[in-house]
Amino acid sequence: MKSLVQQALGEGWYELPPALQAHYRSGDVTEEGYMDIEYPSFMQWYLNVLRLFGALVNRRGRGAVTLVERSQNHGQQHWKRTIRYPNGEVAYFNSLLISAGGDQLIEFVNPFLGLQMSVVAHDGMVQYSGVRFVFKIGRIVISIPEWLVLGHTSIKESALDETHYAMDFRLTHPLFGQVFRYSGVFKVDV
């Protein structure tokens, strides 16, 4: 069985180096690495509110040890991220990834709120580009323009060697510039 990302990438999957294929392989995956989390001060109150709904994290940090656990069942991927800050504080960020058809995926941070993204393989990297935010009530999905919430989402993941990859997640608002970023390096078992 192919993973959701492998399905979305189609033939582009075969362009990916081993570390990225291992990261997105089918089945259960556990990875450990570190992340840097940054955002401007004016975003603190907004991130505190979003955090109440399970979205993102609302604490800056450098070199936060991060454990990522992913399981796949019934065509869905469950992501559990445990972020341990140097002072011992722990934050959790969980999400559910589903297919939106073609090269698009939706990552839900709770049963109602999600981010729809397109994903491509380019130059040996995986690149995501935000399409829209969604609000789901039952079978009804309401589109929310990116600029109305946090801005445009971009994610780039690239292999560093056979067992490590780097990821860079950014939210850039058309008026306020970069409003959130987390980036880091992770080790995968190949």
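That was protein one. Protein two is written in the same sequence-then-structure order:
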Amino acid sequence: MIWFYERRGSHLRCEVRETLEGDRYELVITDPHGAERVETFADSRALTRRSRQLEDEWRTEGWDGPYMRFL
């Protein structure tokens, strides 16, 4: 799944995907300038906690969203 956030014409992209091995998850965050960072999680609960934490931070910073897109 991919989520987008928008603020004054800029966009953040947040993608959740399984690793190739299939036993871990990655959270890929792409900032408005195209820089990408990847966080890896051993289980979906940890991934969900981190996703919610980021969403709260981004809303506090004025980002609107998430706007979801399924792959």
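Residues 2-69 form one domain. Keep this in mind for the problem set.
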